[in-house]
Specification:
By secondary structure, the chain is mostly helical. The protein is built from ten helices and no strands.
């Protein structure tokens, strides 16, 4: 039975703070948060990138944060949550179409919808599904949008699994590797989380630059 102090700590959890989530719910919480962020539109605000990186860091025991996680269960929970969430979002889109997205009044969510539409239009299904994993909010809305737009199930599943594993396992191992190699790395946790979020956007930025170069090259040949 959960003790009153522990129950109070769980109820007081800050869902926007990765460490608070990990302290309250541990490895299981990682899977639940990733499922909500990638599968349910209401989870668009959850800190997926920072949660994965911080969880990997806390597996090393080098951070004096009062939380120690196990790497193997963490990797399984992260992968299952990320993959199951995306597939669930896709199925919701298939059933409900764009109705849920259209009803949203969140400016941030609508901006994510716009960017997701641009990805799908510019890069096609495969690249868009893969790249969306690395963009907050976009990875939330693209899955139901893909379902609503009747993206083939096989295509969606193949690329969401590929992107989901690279994203979830990659960010977790990045945190673990850094925590294993740098003493007292927790002192630099906030800037490191910011850096890892920026790095996660590199594939998308590289693809945008390549697309612009191709467009400029076509324009110059006219």
């Amino acid at each position: 039975m959960t003790s009153p102090p522990h129950l109070a700590a769980q109820l007081a959890v800050n869902v926007l703070d990765a460490h608070s989530l990990l302290a309250a719910f541990g490895v299981l919480g990682v899977g639940v948060v990733l499922f909500a962020e990638t599968g349910l539109l209401i989870g668009f605000f959850l800190p997926g990138d920072s949660l994965l990186f911080t969880a990997g860091l806390l597996c090393t025991g080098s951070a004096d944060q009062g939380v120690k996680l196990s790497l193997a269960p963490l990797l399984v929970s992260a992968a299952v949550g990320a993959l199951a969430g995306a597939q669930c979002g896709f199925l919701i889109g298939r059933k409900a179409g764009g109705a849920l997205i259209a009803r949203s009044r969140s400016r941030r969510l609508r901006e994510g919808v716009r960017r997701a539409e641009e990805l799908l239009e510019r890069y096609g299904h495969a690249k868009a599904i893969l790249l969306a994993r690395f963009v907050p909010v976009v990875r939330t809305v693209l899955n139901p949008m893909a379902g609503a737009l009747d993206v083939p199930v096989r295509t969606f599943t193949l690329w969401q699994v590929t992107g989901g594993l690279v994203w979830s396992v990659g960010l977790t191992l990045a945190g673990y590797a850094l925590g294993s190699s740098i003493p007292n790395v927790d002192r630099y946790l906030l800037p490191l989380v910011g850096l890892i979020v920026i790095v996660s956007l590199v594939p998308l930025l590289a693809e945008v630059l390549r697309a612009r170069r191709r467009a400029d090259a076509k324009g110059g040949t006219r």
